[in-house]
Design a protein that fits this description.
There is one protein chain. By secondary structure, the chain is α+β, with helices and mostly antiparallel strands. It contains 19 helices and 39 strands. Strands 3, 4, 5, 6, 7 and 8 form a 6-stranded antiparallel sheet that branches. Strands 10-11-12-15-16-19 form a 6-stranded mixed sheet, sandwiched between helices. Strands 30-29-31-35-36-38 form a 6-stranded mixed sheet, sandwiched between helices. The longest helix is centred in the N-terminal third of the chain and has 25 residues, at about 1-25.
């Protein structure tokens, strides 16, 4: 009986254990929460983001927000992304994490940051704050502020507001608000504390150059004045737009009529400095007041397609001369206005390069009062140029300490009738004869913002870097006389040493990635630089079968040259040039007299049309042998189309600047370069945007090697006068190229050595900051060799 009872007990225990195991299998230890906010954000990204969503990148961003460093699962759609984040949050809840709402907020915030620096999640307070700002009135202290590590930074006091009247200046730090420390405080909380009921008092501790002081301010209704204007005398008007709001266009219209009634016989100064942007519709409406019919702006997005904004003849104001002032604080909508006026030849821009924010952020309402700002499209100017690269002024000017030197320049230039690119020195000379603001007090010039130099990847202005990996290391230097406190790249803090060298690894989504580097110095002055990286899909490169050649020694084979010079264009839209034919002729004479180019193998095309150029390339394709060397030179107009990511040469018969159908694309040039059977081909181009021939800029640096080895290996190289920027008609590139070829005493001179001999001279003497480029033309058969000039023995 005892044994039987023992057996029954054991059986019951085994059954109970099996039941518990079954329950453990069937009942999860945690339940995945319903992430209403997070899923709402993912849905908006899936439908409206400017690029197709990279769900894997979004998951990594969300995991960064949850501080989860485990290996992420593979996700390929929105459902898998939502499910993975829900599981991660459930596990954190099981371990005693914070509330579901705080965790999904953190995950969504970092996920949006992984897309680009401008897409962001907003709390209900931040979302309401945005609407207050664009309406233009509220009660508070009257200052634009932002969060900083050591407190709340005053970006700009609003003229006429309590902060302005109390002497609070831009760059000062609010250390406490009503005795509550602001160190580490979120921006929305600080704004909530600063704003309040009309006539109430707020006590601030403010730190500036003179130290820490206590300021008591009385809150009152603040109206952000979008437009102000005045007369500068001598028939010159002045109009400043501080921000683009709902009523900006109407206010500008009224100001123009009032200034016109008083007389603007010599011109108008339009001041867009430190204008952070605002409403796109207002910016376009103001642009339409200064230009006639035609396209003003194009907006392109994945879900919205392309939208064009066109000018109307009715309502156009005829201003004799228009000077537009811009600086690094001119962003977004103000850059659009400046860029349109510049491209339509309606104004000259004075000052500094603008900030470079050319993307459209759309506001979306989310669950429970939250909001989000999502990048949905990009701005393009009429020429196809992206605003994202920033707008270069026609006349570069630096702001002097203690006086508005840029406005003074504009006034004197209009007064003297010398508002032209070529009259800069004359206007500065006129300014120097005016009495100084102060002749007794000696002050040190104010240090400018930090200077950021990106060394890796190799970045050229306006040209996207192309890679095939899913991650990239961004490194460089940040310098300031005040010292650098912090560098971030797309919101990630970079490793920083005491010399300002920084480095950080970024994950990349397939397609285009906007990269923003921000540097903050020890006095909390900030600067930023932006560029784009395109992550390309890996693909095999198909090599064209070429008959093998036998190496016969350095300088063997025939040297051919095709020299193309275009200066007289048929279209009235295209500016005629003065020097290309003369430059090409000088190069021809030098190649024949000093190097082993026979006159019968040198072809000079003067002002050829598109068909003549193609016929010349076709002739080279048919006649050049596998041991020959070919030099191709082009001087004339070049164009870069950002929307097509393509550079072009303009032949004589190009129909204009807006129709690329009869231009010569770089892709076609690369096809011909690949098809020509030469051992070596060197392309030299002196044209605007000539750097577009490089599919990726090649920072080529070859170690010293025997000249025989360099000549033996096939090469396809390019040597251009610049990257993606304009170059002047009288280019120093050709001058120093010819000079170094003429002065050369080496029997064998390879193209890389030639480049190294004149590169610094071009940079140091170019009036527009030309930086010559040298490198391999990708996917055309380059194997690491180089073109070698062989000097004639006399």
């Amino acid at each position: 009986m005892k044994n039987g009872g023992h057996n029954i007990t054991q059986a019951l225990l085994r059954g109970l254990l099996a039941l518990l195991v079954l329950m453990a299998i069937c009942i999860p230890a945690y339940a995945a929460p319903d992430l209403k906010l997070f899923q709402d954000v993912v849905d908006k990204v899936e439908k409206h983001y400017v690029d197709p969503p990279d769900y894997q990148l979004m998951l990594r961003g969300a995991m960064r927000g949850l501080e989860d460093e485990t290996l992420p699962p593979t996700v390929t759609n929105a459902g898998q992304l939502n499910g993975s984040v829900a599981e991660l949050i459930a596990r954190r809840l099981e371990r005693g994490g914070t509330t579901v709402r705080l965790q999904e907020e953190a995950a969504a915030r970092q996920m949006l940051l992984s897309l680009d620096p401008h897409s962001m999640l907003m709390t209900p307070q931040e979302y309401q704050e945005l609407f207050v700002a664009t309406k233009g009135s509220f009660s508070g202290i009257g200052a634009e502020v932002k969060a900083a590590e050591t407190g709340i930074l005053v970006v700009s006091p609003i003229e006429g507001g309590p902060a302005f009247e109390a002497g609070i200046k831009a760059g000062e730090i609010i250390r406490s608000i009503d005795r509550v420390s602001t160190v580490g405080m979120r921006l929305e909380k600080a704004v909530m504390l600063l704003r309040g009921k009309d006539t109430t008092t707020v006590l601030l501790e403010v730190e500036g150059r003179s130290g820490l002081r206590t300021v008591s301010l009385v809150r009152r209704p603040i109206t952000i004045k979008s437009v102000s204007f005045k007369e500068l005398g001598d028939g010159i008007g002045y109009l400043k737009i501080s921000q683009f709001q709902e009523q900006t266009a109407r206010a500008v219209e009224e100001a123009l009529y009032k200034l016109g009634a008083k007389g603007m016989s010599k011109g108008l100064v339009l001041d867009l400095r430190n204008n952070p942007g605002g409403l796109l519709s207002s910016s376009v409406a103001v642009a339409d007041m200064f230009v006639d019919t035609g396209t003003l702006l194009m907006v392109r997005g994945r879900s919205s397609g392309q939208q064009s904004f066109d000018g109307k003849t009715i309502g156009t104001h005829r201003v004799p001369v228009l000077a537009v002032l811009v600086n690094k604080g001119s962003a977004s909508a103000s850059e659009i206005l400046a860029g349109v006026l510049q491209e339509r030849k309606a104004a000259l821009l004075l000052g500094e390069r603008t900030f470079g924010k050319g993307s459209v952020q759309t506001l979306y309402s989310l669950a429970d009062g939250y909001g989000m700002r999502l990048t949905t499209s990009h701005y393009y100017l009429p020429s196809g140029r992206m605003v994202q690269a920033g707008i270069e002024p026609d006349i570069a000017l630096e702001q002097a300490e203690g006086r508005d030197s840029v406005l003074e320049y504009a006034r004197v230039a209009l007064q003297s009738g010398k508002l032209t690119r070529d009259s800069r020195a004359e206007v500065l000379a006129l300014l120097s004869r005016q009495p100084a603001i102060s002749s007794t007090v000696q002050t040190q010039p104010a240090a400018g913002p930090p200077v950021i130099t990106v060394t890796s990847p190799a970045v050229q202005r306006g040209l996207a870097v192309k890679v095939r990996s899913d991650a990239v290391t961004v490194s460089g230097t940040a310098s300031s006389s005040r010292g650098i406190a912090r560098v971030t790249v797309n919101g990630q803090q970079a490793a920083l040493d005491d010399r300002g060298n920084f480095s950080v690894e970024l994950l990349l989504r397939p397609g285009e990635n906007l990269i923003e580097v921000q540097a903050l110095d020890l006095q909390r002055v900030a600067a930023s630089e932006q560029f784009r990286i395109v992550r390309e899909a890996a693909k095999p490169v198909l090599q064209q079968a070429v008959a093998p050649s036998v190496f016969q020694g350095v300088g063997s084979g025939t040297y051919h040259a095709l020299l193309i010079a275009v200066q007289d264009y048929r279209s009235a839209e295209i500016t005629k040039l003065d020097h290309p034919v003369q430059d090409a002729s000088r190069l021809r004479d030098l190649l024949i007299s000093n190097y082993t180019f026979d006159p019968s193998n040198v072809t000079l095309l003067k002002n050829p049309d598109r068909k003549e150029i193609f016929k010349a390339f076709e002739s080279l394709r048919k006649t050049v042998g596998p041991n020959d060397s070919v030099l191709v030179f082009f001087a004339g107009h070049g164009v870069w189309r950002e929307d097509m990511q393509q550079g072009f040469w303009l032949p004589r018969d190009a129909s204009g600047m807006s129709d690329p159908s009869d231009w010569i694309p770089n892709s076609t040039l690369r096809d011909y370069i690949k098809a020509i059977r030469a051992r070596h081909l060197l392309l030299m181009a002196d044209a605007c945007f000539s750097g577009g021939i490089f599919k990726v800029r090649d920072a080529f640096s070859r170690p010293d090697a025997a000249v025989e080895k360099v000549f033996e290996m096939p090469s396809r190289k390019a040597l251009t006068s610049g990257s993606l920027k304009t170059v002047p008609d009288r280019s120093v590139f050709v001058e120093y190229l010819l000079k170094r070829l003429r002065e050369n005493r080496d029997q064998y001179l390879d193209a890389q050595k030639l480049y190294s001999r004149f590169r610094e001279a071009v940079i140091n003497n170019s009036p527009v900051g030309q930086t010559p480029l040298y490198g391999a033309i990708s996917e055309t058969g380059d194997e690491g060799g180089d073109f070698i000039f062989v000097r004639r023995v006399r």
